[in-house]
Amino acid sequence: DADVTQTPRNRITKTGKRIMLECSQTKGHDRMYWYRQDPGLGLRLIYYSFDVKDINKGEISDGYSVSRQAQAKFSLSLESAIPNQTALYFCATSDYRGNTIYFGEGSWLTVV
Amino acid sequence: GIQVEQSPPDLILQEGANSTLRCNFSDSVNNLQWFHQNPWGQLINLFYIPSGTKQNGRLSATTVATERYSLLYISSSQTTDSGVYFCAVGPGGFKTIFGAGTRLFVKA
């Protein structure tokens, strides 16, 4: 089984709908992240969390919210999806030093 | 902020060929990682290499921190090496900055 698991792996949703992407990890790491990747581009940080009570906005947090339900679980929500949020979303974890980042398999989201 | 430039942006190889991918960064860093994104989108961490040289099978990486660059070597390339290779630098964790990647296609 993967160390970082994302669900769903693929989702098509309509504009204006709320959608949640879920992430769970078995690495035992405190730090968790949500990234977005657009075609031909690198990864951009949406939100990051140092622990259950410490959540921070990243580079592109507008239109997104997150919830850290437990050390191992970090979910990303699009409150009212719009087409330019169509992208590949990654959850990731690292230890406190952040030297090595471990990514989930990715969630392909299409907003129509 | 730190700027990360990867070259070449695209690379096509014949199976069995060797290649070198480069990552330049604009400021001192204490964290540099190389990732491979396969054609299905999965991102795999290849190396954590803030300085020095590491090898893992047909892949090796060298970072010269004082000159602000890192190289990823792929020897005897295989079709399964295809995908996008990302360099990521920074203090680590949430401050990690990703380059735009090098897209590699290995022909059989």
Notes on the structure:
- The complex is a heterodimer of chains A (112) and B (108).
- Chain A is 0% helix and 56% strand.
- Chain A is built from no helices and 11 strands.
- In chain A, the strands form 2 sheets. In chain A, strands 2, 4, 5, 6, 9, 10 and 11 form a 7-stranded mixed β-sheet that branches. Chain A has a 4-stranded antiparallel β-sheet with strand order 1-3-8-7, with no helix packed on it.
- Chain A is globular and about 40 Å long.
- By secondary structure, chain B is mostly beta strands.
- Helices cover 0% and strands 56% of the residues of chain B.
- In chain B, strands 2, 4, 5, 9, 10 and 11 form a 6-stranded mixed β-sheet that branches.
- Chain B is globular.
- Chain B starts with a strand and ends with a strand.
- The interface between A and B is medium-sized, with 25 and 23 residues.
Instruction: Tell me the span between the first and last alpha carbons of chain A.
Output: 32 Å
Biggest pleated sheet of chain A: 7 strands, mixed
- Counting copies of identical and different chains, the oligomeric state is heterodimer
Report the portion of residues of chain B in β strands: over 45%
- Helical residue percent band of chain B: under 10%
Briefly note the structural class of the backbone of chain A: mainly beta
Give the averaged pLDDT of chain B, no decimals.
93
User: How many beta-strand elements of chain A?
Assistant: 11
Low-confidence stretches of chain B: none
User: How many E-type strands of chain B?
Assistant: 11
- Label the structural class of chain B: mainly beta
| Spatial shape of chain B | globular
Which band does the percent of strand residues of chain A land in?
over 45%
The helix-strand sequence of chain A is: EEEEEEEEEEE
Radius of gyration of chain A, in angstroms, nearest whole number: 13 Å
